[in-house]
Design a protein that fits this description.
Radius of gyration: 14 Å
Oligomer: single chain
Structural class: alpha/beta
Number of strands: 4
Strand order of the largest sheet: 2-1-3-4
Number of helices: 4
Strand content: 5-15%
Largest sheet: 4 strands, parallel
Shape: globular
Length: 129
């Protein structure tokens, strides 16, 4: 049975955190208990605890935060995303998570409201996934 860790940058009152969890489980075709939610806001993410016993890391979005916020937990978030990628550990990052992964590698993430792409797009999992 596949096991996942879902890194989330969500405050406790955000119902979308649960919705995101459910959506990942539905799209992966797994039970909710196969995806363990991990709180990025705690600022204590560690490579070993994220990867041990997991088959892949999932990194969700965030409605309340930007990769350019001055939040103390963001450095740990970027560092761990870089470490996961450097370890060549299977990872899927969406939305804020993808921006965080870009920041981890020194890429530029721009806020450009005129070119903003927002919405839902159909994706299909390949057999190798």
């Amino acid at each position: 049975m596949k096991r996942y860790r879902l890194i989330q940058a969500r405050t406790p009152e955000e119902v979308v955190g649960r919705e995101e969890h459910v959506s990942f489980a539905k799209e992966l075709g797994v039970h909710l208990d196969q995806i363990e939610r991990v709180d990025a806001l705690a600022g204590n993410l560690e490579l070993a605890s994220l990867t041990d016993g997991a088959d892949a890391i999932l990194v969700g979005g965030s409605g309340k935060f930007s990769v350019y916020d001055d939040a103390p937990w963001l450095k740990n978030f970027f560092d761990i995303l870089g470490a996961v990628a450097d370890a060549d550990f299977p990872t899927f990052a969406s939305c804020f998570g993808f921006q965080g992964l870009c920041m981890a590698f020194g890429s530029e993430v721009r806020k450009d409201m005129e070119a903003a792409e927002v919405g839902t797009y159909a994706m299909h999992k390949m057999p190798a996934a």
